[in-house]
Amino acid sequence: MAHRERLDAIRAEMRALGIAAYIIPSSDPHISEYLPERYKCIAWASGFTGSAGTLAITEDFAGLWTDSRYFVQANDQLQDTGFDLVKLKVQGAAEYAFWLAETLPAGSKVAFDGNLASLAVAQAVKEALEPIGIQVDGHVDLLDRVWNDRPSLPTAPAYLLSEETTGESSASKIARVKAKLGAKRATAHFISSLDDLAWILNIRGNDVPCNPVVLGFLLIEEERHTLFIDERKLSADDRQKLTDAGIIVEDYAAAFAAVAALQADRIWLDPKRTCFAVYDAVPKTTAIIEDINPSTRLKAIKNEVEIAHTRQAMVKDGIAMTRFFKWVEEHVSDGNLTEISIADKLQAFRAAGTDFVDISFDTIAGYLEHGALPHYKATEASNATLRAAGLLLVDSGGQYKDGTTDITRVISLGETTDAERADYTIVLKGTIEGSLAVFPKGTRGYQIDAITRRPIWENLRNYGHGTGHGVGFFLNVHEGPHTFNPSNVDIPVEEGMITSIEPGLYREGAYGIRIENLVLSKDLESNQFGEFMHFETLTICYIATDLVDKSLLDQKHMDWLNSYNSWVFEQLVSHLTEEEAAWLKEKTRAV
C-alpha cells in the first residue's frame, strides 16, 4: 500500500471503533530510540524515518509533530503521503495533545497503543484531554489490523560478556540496584529499557540495528530476579551462567502477566522508560514509585575497566578514520564517490579492525547542503556525488566489543569561502571551550552547554540541537541520564561519565559544520574553594586545520588544537603504514 492508502485504512478502523483521533508515538514496548523493524510504525504509516516524532490522525487531518532537527527531512519525506509537518515549539513536548484538546469536541474518543507510549507520554495525553471530557483509551493497536506484512520480532542470538570486559559482575550490579530500591522501600523493580537490562546482566544482542541489545524485560524482586526473553536466543552455557547468578529465565511474552500477578507492596517504574501497558497492568494494591531507573545513573559512570577498554576502541576508530579521510582525499577527483558509497567505505575501514561489531548509528555523510541537516541519512533519491569542492560533514561511530565511538568531522574537498572558514573556526572554538572547561563538582549539563556555546553566541550564531549526550560502553550511543543541552536537567556531571561535545552551525541550502569529540569527566583538584573537575578527550582523529581562520582564534585555542593534533599523531603513528603516517603528519602539522 502507498502511504495514503495506509492512512485511509487507519481511518477506516478509527471510524469502525468510534475513534476521533489516533496517536502513534515513535517507540516500542521498551521505549527505545532505535527500533526493531516491527515497531517502525511512523515510517510505515507516513514515510518519515527520523528517530523522534509523533503522528496524530483525525478524520480530516494527519500530522507529524517533530522538532527542528527533522524539519527539512520531514518536509521531503511527507510529500504526497497525506501527512503534514507540524513544527514543535518545544522539543519533546506533547503539543499534539494540546492541539487535540482545542480541535475535538467533548465526548470524543482518543486512542493509542499503550505498548508504544511511555507512561510519561500517556500521562501528558490524559492530563490534556480527560479534564475537558475527552475519553482516552491506551489499549488500541490499530496498526496490527491493517499492517498485513508487519515484521516479526527479531530472533538474533544473545550472549553474555565476561567480567574481564565489563569490570563488574551482574550479581554485583543487581546488589547495587537493590540497595537503591531499599532506600525508597521498593520491593519490586520492572526494567523495560534494553540498555539498562544489558548493563545489569552483562548481556548483549543484535535485535536493534546499531545497538548491541536484546529484547527483554527484567523484574527484580526481593527474593527473585526474572529475565523475560525469547529463550531460543540463549546458548545452554549462557543460560546456565544466568541461573548460577540467580536469574530465572522466562518467556518474553510472559512479562506483562508477571506484572499483573505481582504481590509487591511498592514497585519502582521509570515513567520515561516504561510503556503505559506495563503501568496499567500493575495491581491496584501495589503502590508505584515513579523515578528514573537506578541502573541508568549507575551505568553512566564507567569503571576503570570500561574506561581502559574504551581508550583501546578509540585507537581502532582513529585508525579507521585516518584511512577513510586519506582515501576520500585521494579519490574525490575520480568523480564516482557518493554519500552512500563513502559511508559504506568508512564502515569497511572500521570492520577491518579487531573487535568491530557494527556501526553505532547510521552514518551521516552530508555533502554541501546535506551537511546542514543534523540527522541526515542519504537515500538513493538524495545520494549526492562528491566533487573536489565544498564541505563534507561526516558524523559516524562504531560498536566494538571494547567500546562505543561517536565522532564528527568536517573536511574541505576543494576551495573554501571566507564564510565557511569563519563558521568552521567559530564551531571549533566552541568544541575547544567545552573540552577545556574546568568546573566545580555538582555542575549540570546545561552549564557545560552554555560554556560551549559562548564563542558561538558571541558571533550571533546558534544551533538547534544539544551540545552533548552520554555514550554507553559497548551499548547505546545515546545514553542518559545526563545531557549537555539548554534544558534544566538536574543531573550533575560526575567522574567517569563519557559524553560528546558537538557544537555546530548550519546554513540551510549551503553547508553544515559540526565538530564532535567524546570526553571523560574526571576529578581535577580539591582545595579550600571546593572540588573541581575537567574533561579528558578520548576521541583520536585529527581536526582539519586548512579550514581554520587563525584571526578568530585566541592563543589558548591555537595551543589546544596543536596539542590535540600532535597527540592524535602520537597515538596512531605506530599503527599506520609509512605512507599513512606521512599523510597524517602533514594533517596534524601545527597551525
Automatic annotation (TrEMBL):
The GO terms this record gives for MF are: aminopeptidase activity
The cross-references to SUPFAM superfamilies, in alphabetical order and at most eight, read: Creatinase/aminopeptidase, Creatinase/prolidase N-terminal domain
Domain Peptidase M24 intervals: 309-520
Occurrences of domain Peptidase M24 C-terminal (ranges): 531-590
Keyword Hydrolase attached:
yes
Family named by the database record: Belongs to the peptidase M24B family.
Q: What is this protein called?
A: Aminopeptidase P family protein
